[in-house]
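Protein data:
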Amino acid sequence: MTFATVLLFWTVSSEAWTSVGWQIGQDEAAQHFALSGVWVIFGAVLMAIGVARDVGSLRWAALALFAVTAIKIFGADPPLSDPDYAPLINPHAGPLLAITVLLYTAGAWYARKKDADDPERTVGTALVVAATGLLLWVASSEAWLFLGWRTTAGVAGQHMALSIVWLIFGATMLIMGLQRRQAALRWLGLVTFGLTAGKVFIVDPDLTASTYQLLANHHAFPLLVIAAMLFLAPHWYRRDLEHVGEGEEMVATAMPFLASVLLWWVLTSEAWHFVDWGLGAEGDAQQYALSAVWTAYGAVLVAIGLIRRNASLRWIGMALLAITIVKVFSLDLRELDIVYKILALLGLGLVLIAVGFGYQRLVRDQAEQGRTED
């Protein structure tokens, strides 16, 4: 039986390679595509028979064949080229997507199999992890190549698409981890957010006036999404604290601070570039825009902290207002035109007065609450 299976495998592989190359007259890429397709189909048949007849050796053979196919694609197949590229239906993405679906299916079957031995149970978890990694790779690769070869988005658009793919993946992992109470998925989601932010700050090309769009550019948009997820995640964590480890709880506590810093960076960068590239002003106008944005953002953080009784947000907002005060008195009053000086002082003064009234109300409410409890 084993010899017959190997012989059949060799025959269909050889026929696929020679018929595509000699009779159909396709190039080497098409031959590799056909070979990968034959191997994936052959592995799927082995897996189906192994599951139906409960033959472990056939299931292991199918998994080994899937692994060999993936290795062939990454290590032996020729690189994709622009003229022959077809989204998702190409010698790389097509077989890898098929393997991904089969691995997810096999992983689900292993998870439901009651009499599976320990090695197979371990393999079931590994299959899901491997399938998830393959899916992320295919989505990233296809987004990059499609925008590069089939659109005029340019490198900036490619990086934007790559960041969006990673953000969708990270958000999916985080939400699934919270729903299924699996710490590994939650950590995977958070790490993906971190990698995306690192890519934006370190790898992505600088913004340019020709490609700049307010908030919808390859720097601001991904960071805004990450900030939103970091603001929301602690609320999700608090719903299920008994299943959250100490390390995760500490990270969840730090998330609002990290989100606030990211949002501050985005607002600062966008204010600076929009005044220059969007409004055609620079110099004094840009410096005033920074002071105005920092003042408004600090006031919003303090207001939210007062409304939600969140001391951390209040402290972050007050720290930003303090930095703004230092900037206004050390730089703006010395360098800016008189109109910008007046506007900066007026806006900052009004905000500080409003913050003072807000804190007075907070102290009064706390005092009344204390008397009520007594």
Summary: Residues 152-266 form one domain. The radius of gyration is 28 Å. The chain has three domains: 1-151, 152-266, 283-368.
